[in-house]
Amino acid sequence: MSSLLKDLVEIGSNDIKQHEGSELIEEEFTMACLYISKMKSEVKTMVKRSEQLESTQAESNKKMDDNEKELAACQLRISQHEAKIKSLMAYTTVYLQSVGQKKRQLQESVDSLNEELVKINAQEKVHNMKKENDIQTANEVKEAVDKQIQGHCEAHHKQLSSLRDELDKEKLITKLQDLNQEIMLEQEPLWLEHEKLKSTDQVKTRKLHKLTVMPDRTCGVEEEDDEEEYVKWNGSIPSICHGYAKNR
């Protein structure tokens, strides 16, 4: 009788242990399934994010190429404007020199004509005096007139030369100042546009660098998280297998 009771007790305890082991296996199996589904969703999210980053990087590279082309075109335009400005300055200098030379020649021609006119008037006076048979007076008058003409001409020449030089210098300085002001006004918007493009290019370069570095960092962090989750999951798999073998 006592042996029969012992057998019944052993059978009952074995049933309880088998029931508890099956529940533990089912619970661990459910956790493993949940973890696998979580890993699948995370992998899909990582793939989608990687595609978005690749698309963003491609767009940034395209924008960089467009900006580089635009910057090269602006630099070429600036070089063309600088060459044009130099050509205009050289042409203006030559033109001013030519105009000054022509003006000087005309002034010298006018001075020569005035001298000839004074001489003709003096000769006419002398001729009239000769007609009056006053040769001595005519000679004295002629000498006085010649001296007067000579002194007048020398003073006139000095005065005109001084005035011409001052006028030429003032006009040349004024024209060069006006031309320089016009050139500076033409160059100012070009330099502003160049600096703006340069600043925009630098900002976009920094953004592209950040976008290029960000995927590497993100992948590193996600790989570490995956390794930790994988270790945990591997730790749970042996217990599942052990429980399953025990149940069998």
Break the fold down into its secondary structure elements and pairings.
Blueprint: H1 2-131, H2 135-247
Write structural notes for this entry:
Keywords: Coiled coil. Residues 50-123 form a coiled coil. This protein has one domain. It has 248 residues and is an all-alpha fold. The protein has helices at 2-131, 135-247. It is built from 2 helices and no strands. The longest helix has 130 residues, at 2-131.
Average pLDDT over all residues:
74
Helix content: over 70%
Question: What's the structural domain tally?
Answer: 1
β-strand amount: under 5%
Radius of gyration: 54 Å
Structural class: mainly alpha
Per the principal axes of the C-alpha atoms, what is the gross shape? rod-shaped
| Total strand segments | 0
Q: Ranges with pLDDT <50 over ≥5 residues?
A: 235-248
The H/E string reads HH
Distance between the termini: 31 Å
The largest sheet is: none
Count of helical segments? 2
Coiled coil: 50-123
Keywords: Coiled coil
Briefly say what this structure is:
The chain is mainly α and 248 residues long. The protein has 2 helices and no strands. The protein has one domain.
List key phrases describing it:
single chain; 248 residues; mainly alpha; 2 helices; 98% helix; 0% strand
